Amino acid sequence: YDFATMAYANIEPDDRSYVFGLENTAAWQPHPDWDIRATLTLQDSDTGGENGNEITFTPQATASLTATWSFTAWDDDFWITGGLDHRGKQWQDPDNTVELDAHTTLRATLGWQPDERIRLYLRAENITDTHTPGYLAQPRDPDTFYPGDPGSAGASFTSPPLSLAIGGEARF
Fold first, then answer.
1. How many CA atoms lie within 13 A of 136 on its CB side?
2. CA 159 to CA 105: how far, in whole Å?
3. Which pTM does this prediction carry?
4. What letters, b where the CB count within 10 A reaches 16 and e where it falls short, cover 3-14?
5. Where are the extended beta strands (E) located within 14-162?
6. Which run of H or of E encompasses 165?
7. CA pair distance 41, 83, nearest whole angstrom
8. How far apart are CA 20 and CA 169, in angstroms?
9. Which among 28, 44, 66, 105 counts the fewest CB atoms within 10 Å?
């Protein structure tokens, strides 16, 4: 990624880059309060140039397994979710010489929905403290920061181990 031009350096303007693939999801609800989902994404990318390189930070495979238990017997809805996420190997640089290893992480969320329009949660990511490759988001303009925005991703780093987040959603 070229931060000066805010464009991928390995894709020439006249080239036809592409990413295509297949995304599959399977869901099972063995009990009204229990939801299990599995996803698998397989994809292929090409920068469109003569070298046939893959687009940076584009893994060939990702997979996840998520289970959610909702405590709907109470007046307020609580839920707990556990998940396992896998990202396949990917390239850090346009020349496809620096490979980021495949990695698997574990996550969990404890949430409360006091109203149909409000959700509050506590989330833990990378519970097993695995050091994983990732990317550092860079701003599109000097006054704005877009965390995790793939359109502004560029620099590779090793993410910190366990991270915790407190969040909420409101729908109007």
1. 8
2. 11
3. 0.69
4. eeeeebbbbeee
5. 18-31, 34-46, 61-71, 77-87, 90-91, 99-100, 103-115, 118-125, 133-137, 153-158
6. strand 163-170
7. 16
8. 32
9. 28
Sign of the torsion angle spanned by Cα atoms 135, 64, 23, 25? negative
Q: Identify whether the C-beta of residue 115 lies closer than 8 Å to the C-beta of residue 134.
A: no
Structure token digits, residue 162: 């366990």
Closest CA to 154 of 97, 93, 112: 93
Q: Are 161 and 130 in contact (CB under 8 A)?
A: yes
Amino acid type, 164: L
CB atoms within 10 A of CB 155: 12
Q: Cite the DSSP H helix spans in 6-67.
A: none
Q: 131 near 161, Cβ under 8 Å?
A: yes
Q: Biggest alpha carbon distance in the chain?
A: 61
Q: What are the tokens at 125?
A: 């990511």
C-beta contacts of 3-7 below 8 A and 24+ residues apart: 3/138, 3/154, 6/140, 6/152
